[in-house]
Design brief:
single chain, 314 residues, alpha/beta, Rossmann fold, Helicase, Ruva Protein, domain 3, 5-stranded parallel beta sheet, two-stranded antiparallel sheet, 15% strand
């Protein structure tokens, strides 16, 4: 790992100027972005979801667009439209806000599933198709979406296909006493103090380095065993897809990178399994009635699978 190994630490400290506390949350978002994944941040209003995403975008120095998802938002409001130019006599593509490196999909579950689905092709293939013509999106391309819990009024659950395209689902939680005290001391607009640490080209370079991080076959087997166990668990109606295995592998490489290691440990898998898998699992109704949660299932699976021994002399 020769390329700017201090960058992740600098990013965390820079983001903390505007978003107080929750270092582990910040680290996980950085891991996802640097390893090529999208992030869904789910929590109650007022805990700083939007501020966190804005701070991440400014720190990365990439082009940034915010899309406010509302019930009347249309897919064309996101992707853009083709219009006829009377002067030239030709149809021209007027790009939508999705043409940026970092997209803040704010309150994504406030819009209809049809509008939410307009992101499917973009998140998976890095491209959009409008009126039969395909357009490549800028690289890197990352969707950082926020949503309120679906038990709040006026929200629409995200389709499973949409959820599966997010590498992570993260909950911020309320600040502790000291963190909230620090928030009260903030003056002006802290987001204005955020400076760009890296550029879009730097992000692409780091992604190439992360791909080179070594993963032993035993660790890959460990990841597969965990994911396949979600499909066989007695409390699970729908388990994790192979996309979840890939997301967990990539995120573990990202975690190793920010910890300045050139190899992945089983502990990396255990640390990230919850945020990678929790939105890809659907429990059976009877399990929910018994008070079981997805987190309980993931914990029980990890506890039941033997942890492989890995050589650290890589």
């Amino acid at each position: 790992m020769d390329y700017c190994k201090n960058i992740p630490l600098e990013l965390v400290e820079n983001i903390k100027k505007a978003f107080i506390g929750k270092k582990t949350v910040i680290e996980k978002i950085i891991i996802a972005v640097l390893s090529g994944g999208h992030v869904l941040i789910e929590d109650v209003p007022g805990v700083g979801k939007t501020t966190l995403v804005q701070a991440v975008a400014k720190s990365l120095g990439c082009s940034f667009k915010r899309i406010q998802f509302t019930p009347d938002l249309l897919p064309s409001d996101i992707t853009g439209i083709t219009v006829y130019n009377n002067r030239t006599g030709e149809f021209e593509f007027k790009e939508g806000p999705i043409m940026a490196n970092i997209i803040l999909a704010d309150e994504i579950n406030r819009s209809s599933p049809k509008t939410q689905s307009s992101l499917l092709e973009a998140m998976q293939e890095g491209q959009i198709t409008v009126d039969g013509v395909t357009y490549d999106l800028p690289k890197p391309f990352v969707v950082l979406a926020t949503q309120n819990p679906i038990e709040y009024e006026g929200t629409f659950p995200l389709p499973e296909a949409q959820l599966d395209r997010f590498a992570m689902r993260i909950k911020i939680g309320y600040p502790d006493f000291n963190e909230e005290k620090s928030i009260l001391k903030l003056q002006g607009k802290p987001i204005d103090e955020i400076e760009s640490i890296i550029t879009d080209k730097d992000v692409l370079k780091i992604r190439e380095e992360i791909k080179k991080i070594y993963v032993e076959d035993s660790v890959k087997d460990y990841i597969i065993s965990i994911v396949q166990a979600t499909r066989k668990h007695q409390d699970v109606y729908l388990g994790c897809s192979p996309r979840g295995s890939l997301a967990l592998l990539n995120a573990c490489r990202g975690l190793a990178y920010i910890r300045d290691r050139n190899y992945v440990l089983p502990d990396d898998v255990k640390e990230l399994a919850d945020v990678i898998l929790n939105h890809r699992i659907i429990l059976k109704p009877e399990a929910k009635m018994k008070g079981r949660t997805v987190e309980d299932v993931i914990y029980s699976i990890i506890s039941s699978i033997r942890v492989p021994l890995v050589s650290r002399n890589v």
